[in-house]
Design brief:
This is Kinesin. The chain is an alpha+beta fold and 756 residues long. It folds into 4 domains: 7-140 and 366-399, no CATH class; 201-341, no CATH class; 409-497 and 629-658, no CATH class; 504-547 and 568-625, no CATH class. The strands form 6 sheets. Strands 13-15-14-17-16-11-12-19 form an 8-stranded antiparallel β-sheet. Strands 4-3-18 form a 3-stranded antiparallel β-sheet. Strands 1-2 form a two-stranded antiparallel sheet. The protein is flat, with a radius of gyration of 50 Å.
Length: 756
Amino acid sequence: MSAPLVYRRYGGSLQVDIPTFDALVEAIRIPETQWMATACPLSGFNCDARFLAFLDGDANGRIRVAEVRAAVEHTAKLLQSRKGVDARSDVLELEALSPEGAKVRAAALRILAVLKISETGRVSLAQVRASEQVLRDAGVNGDGIVAPPFLPENVRALASRIMAAFPEVKNRASQAGIDAPMLQRFREARTALLTHMGQKDALHLWGEPSMERARRIREVKPLLDEYFLQCRLVAAQPEAAASLKLPAGRVEGMLGDSAALLKGVAVLPVAPVDPAGVLTWARLYRGPAFEALEAFRKDVAAPLTGDAQHLSDAAWKELSSRAEALLAWQAGFEANPVRGMLAELASLSDADLGTLEAACKADLALKEELDAITELERLLLYQRWLLPFANNFISMPDLYTPRRKALFEKGTLILGGRKYTLAVLAAPRDAHIALTSQGTTCVLYVKVTPKEGGDGYEVAVPVTRGRSDHLEVGKRGIFHDVDGKEHDAIVTHVIRQPVSLWEAMTQPFQRIGRFISSKVEAMASSGDKAFEAQLEKGYAHSTAVVTTAGAPPAPAAAAAAAPPAQPGGLAGLLAAGGIAFAAVGSALAFIVAQTKSLTLVDIFSAAVVIAAIVMLPAGLFGWLKLRRRNLALLLEGSGWALNDRLILSRDLAALVTRKPRLPKGSRIDRTDKLRSTLVDLQDEEDEDSEEGMPGAVKVLVVLAILLAVLWQVRGPLARFACEYQWLSAESCGALLPVVPPKPEAPVAPVPPTPAP
């Protein structure tokens, strides 16, 4: 009795444990709903391509549950010992075969004999594939198709001529050859052609030029058939003869129009219609077919009928029927595939054909044995790859194991100081992006280009730790595939999602910063343009003043009508600067006036509250997104059909994206070597060689700006300082203007109440 199955939890996903082949035999019986995958494409796997082809029983390019079950059952039937499967070995011990594997055992022994290997207790996958080439080189294919080099020498030329007469067939070695069905078609075609040639003399009554005359008859057949039909019509209805002529009005309308004339002549009979059904050659109309009919009379009709003046309906029918029979015979001759061998067909030896047929049958007799060799290769591949494939299809523990790569992983990406260990083939790319963009995982699409050249491929890489703001399209890195080869890598597309809770909470501030930066840059750009326009305007105004300085004064009326000059040049610049300083000062004054009643604790508390109002909702939504991250979308985008989600837990996120630590025993020198280098360099150079503004000038500029700003907000600052008694009463009286009190409104006297 087999041990019960064990289900293990991997990152929130419950998966069946398949450590051995016996466990796999039990695992394939669980319901399909408990399999991690129910279908997958053949592409993207790091295993033997022939194994996947054997596994795909219906050759539709996808592997399904039923095909995996069939492969496991087939392996279990042929093997009585499962040690090789558990060891994932590509060497088959012949004693491990069950009685049902007798044919496979015989195929293994034949392979060892072909390769002249003395040890007959085991056979490897490499030996099976090497023997295949040896057998192919010996012309042994088992499909009944024999190439000429492997035929007896006396029939090789005959085989080549027969092969040239029929569509090409190739054997398992991709060599063109001859087989029994081709020989049978040759025998049938030879018999038919010899019979066909026996009818030649009865049909070729016109001698050597019979075929040429038959073709000439077919060329004029539509014209003469129509003419004799018109004769029958007029014989039955004489008044119809008038309808076969052009009316005089139509002829007059066609005069001067060549196209209309040509069209009108084409509808006329080839000659005057004779109710007796006789064509008189001398009466042919000079229409479009005149030359062809005249040549036909001289070359064909007159020699064959013996009458150069007339052609009756009966004589024409006889000529036409004989011509059709000749042409039909010729068509049958040209359709026969062995007509090129006509000269040797009658003398061809049946013994030679028998030799070819025997060679084909001898090769076909090996089919069962060679098919057993194919089954041996299938069994070896199943023994090597079936258990790893099941652990990437029925369950996926390798995805959660750092020291093993899943079969669908392509390699490791090194980019931006981090190691991304999970990469799957992204094909087709557009469909893959359309699906992964619906999730909440940050995904990089990376083009991997081999250093030795080639088209390369594109992989999807999830980003699960760190930050994503530095990951942009065009960023380069390196990619190590599962074989350890290094390739160039470049980011081609980014699906941006929060990678960590802190990034989710700070994203609103980043967006606000980007918004403010864009607005400031836009304002600066517009200010630069306005400044340049102002300078250009001032320059034009100055040029106009200089130009008109020596000119006579303009009339008073024109001067009065001229619009007032706009300020420009330095004056305009100073005015704009004054307005800017006033705006900044007003803003600062407003801020100071609003916050003068607040303490530092109040200001700090307000900042914390504002940050919390922004960050807490963003953090909540980010936390929900991080909890819903699903790696299954990466596989489903490539064509997988999955039953369960591959939830990206915190542990799995740490496994997928890593930042390696410094080597053990290393230490960090905190000294900034660049600063010390610059100090040494400045000591070696003169002071005059320093570029930029001198330090004293920088201090004066900063002080001037600070004083200008303080001057604009002097009033609110003085009131704020006096309120908190930071200044004496005398200073406050000097700084703050005395505002006279408003006079009180006089109170009207109340009139006395009269006595009763």
